[in-house]
Amino acid sequence: MLTVDFTRFPLAPGDRVLDLGCGAGRHAFECYRRGAQVVALDRNAEEIREVARWFAAMKEAGEAPQGATATAMEGDALNLPFPDDSFDVVIISEVMEHIPDDKGVLAEMVRVLRPGGRIAVTVPRYGPEKICWSLSDAYHEVEGGHIRIYKADELLRRMREAGLKPYGTHHAHALHSPYWWLKCAFGVGRDGEDAALPVRAYHKLLVWDIMKKPAVTRVAEQLLNPVVGKSFVAYATKPHLPRAQA
């Protein structure tokens, strides 16, 4: 399940891509399939080991084209182990809402992104997220959980303040908003068979949708995304610095 729309945010073979806070690796895997030179970075050692195993399996299965590379590594988003201007593309998906120093993370992303490079930032959308916070304290009080809710204009302003030039936005995952509202209403900590019946039933619907990709749910989500899309997605470029006058 991808949050970044690669028809709006296309990659070229050989693009150097950083997936910052890669988690389980969903965007990193897609970039690898598209021929990029991918670095997937996260502070969670267990997830990084799993992402590395998947990269190896993809290579073995021939899922990535010749010339594509993939590396999984632990790292700190506030102290990235890369020189300035190292990447053509940076992706940070559903991460910034967890980090106290979000301005510091943006500054590091801009530092390692080359002039003319592009960045994709996704965060939970204000409206659906606000409902989750209203329904459940546990949803956002868990250790490592969400510590802020971004309004769209606030996120775009912070991106501009970091030196980026936003050029496009959209919303994603409308079908997932009701699932999280149900989770918050019936108990965020109740999982699997312990989850309430409405939560289990809706989860089965989401799994079916992800696996089968039926046209009816694709159309429904496209219609609903502007209204209740779970994620807000913003794309931006790092402008070229003006040449100094001789």
Automatic annotation (TrEMBL):
Reply yes or no: does the keyword Methyltransferase apply. yes
One of the GO BP terms on file: methylation
Q: Report keywords, A-Z.
A: Methyltransferase, Transferase
Stretches assigned to the Methyltransferase type domain: 18-120
Q: Tell me a Gene Ontology molecular-function term this record carries.
A: S-adenosylmethionine-dependent methyltransferase activity
Recorded coiled-coil stretches:
none
Q: Which Pfam families match?
A: Methyltransf_11
InterPro entries associated with the record: Methyltransf_11, SAM-dependent_MTases_sf
Q: Which CDD domains match?
A: AdoMet_MTases
Question: Can you name this protein?
Answer: Methyltransferase
Q: Which organism was this protein described from?
A: Streptomyces fulvorobeus
